From TrEMBL:
GO cellular component, one term: cytoplasm
Region (Disordered): 41-62
Protein name, per record: Hydratase
Record GO terms (molecular function): 2-oxopent-4-enoate hydratase activity
The organism's taxonomic lineage, starting at the top: Bacteria, Bacillati, Cyanobacteriota, Cyanophyceae, Coleofasciculales
InterPro entries in alphabetical order: Fumarylacetoacetase_C_sf, Hydratase-Decarb/MhpD_sf
Species this protein is from: Moorena producens (strain JHB)
Length: 324
């Protein structure tokens, strides 16, 4: 075989080898690129387009997740997509986008809620502190409300406690007494959360934070005026709640000491958490301080009543909700 042919063939093989290496590098780079948060359970659809009003959301996996969570929430269908390995900051960013999507149908922000406010719940959901969410205007109902039993994807109820901000001095409070001085009312509150995700989805605290800590509905009682006295400071730590059915049968029991040992500590935590995100509390903001009772499943055709003992100096306080 002539030497010229061998040289020409060798050059051709070398060029092909270089092209193969270049292609391999490109493919490797595309495989190594991954988003900052891992998505599991999401359905892939290359032809789908986001309806998000924010262009950034349209271009990111986070935006697709927010869109799916929002669709599941509004349609009351189980969400099968969940973000894992999130930092608290990433979960909060997802929540902000989720709430933005909901606000057009549920109204303006009227307050905030704390979740996982006891050590047992934090351990279960693998977090070291509470998580917070946002309360929107149309989420809040008056005592005596009658609502569908299927008010959410996975509807539950719990005995809660709410306070109302009376002064923006709350933002500089550092002690329970200072926090109390910046509040003007305590409100009996039965929250009606929605766990949103499919029951088969394994949840942690950040996944719960991403869905706005399950905020869906809640029933408010009559506001009770607060004053910054030792009596009120002690009273708030020693409230008992009993949830009963229409016949008076006990369904759940809890105490306000379940709220970080003192509901006013939850107020301080919420203030600090919001401040860390560049937000401040304002007069009139409502603060849901967390669950005093275990979560319970909603049953159609029932009425439940939450009785608060030790909350009002005038006597027992009660509120109710009925499920169709």
């Amino acid at each position: 075989m002539p030497n010229g042919f061998n040289h020409e063939n060798s050059s051709s093989n070398t060029m092909q080898h270089i092209k193969s290496i270049s292609l391999a590098i490109v493919l490797l780079a595309s495989v190594l690129y991954v988003p900052s948060c891992k998505l599991t359970g999401a359905k892939k659809n290359s032809n789908s387009s986001s309806s998000s009003p924010t262009k950034v959301l349209d271009q990111t996996p986070d935006g697709r997740l927010v869109e799916e969570l929002t669709t599941s929430y509004l349609n009351k269908t189980p969400a099968r997509a969940v973000a894992t390995q999130l930092t608290v900051e990433q979960a909060q960013a997802l929540q902000d986008q989720f709430v933005q999507q909901l606000s057009s149908s549920l109204g303006n922000v009227v307050g905030y809620k704390a979740g996982l406010t006891n050590p047992a719940a934090q351990e279960r959901f693998k977090v070291s502190e509470p998580i917070r969410g946002v309360l929107l205007e149309k989420m809040l109902l008056k005592s005596g409300a009658v609502i569908p039993a299927k008010f959410g994807t996975r509807p539950v109820y719990e005995g809660d406690l709410m306070v109302r901000v009376g002064s923006e001095e709350i933002n500089s409070a550092t002690t329970p007494r200072e926090a109390l001085a910046a509040l003007d009312a305590v409100i009996p509150f039965m929250e009606l959360p929605d766990l949103v995700y499919d029951p088969k989805v394994s949840l942690d605290g950040t996944a719960l934070a991403a869905i706005n800590v399950g905020a869906r509905l809640g029933v408010l009682g009559t506001p009770i005026p607060l004053s910054a006295t030792p009596d009120w400071e002690e009273r708030l730590k020693n409230i008992k709640i009993v949830i009963v059915d229409k016949a008076g049968n006990e369904l759940a029991v809890g105490k306000s000491s379940a709220l970080l040992g003192n509901p006013l500590q939850v107020v301080l935590w919420l203030k600090d958490s919001l401040k860390a995100s560049g937000k401040v509390l304002k007069k009139g903001d409502l603060l849901s301080l967390g669950s005093m009772t275990p979560l319970a499943t909603v049953k159609p055709g029932t009425t439940i009543r939450a009785q608060y003992i030790g909350l009002d100096p005038k006597g027992k306080v009660e509120l109710s909700v009925s499920f169709e």
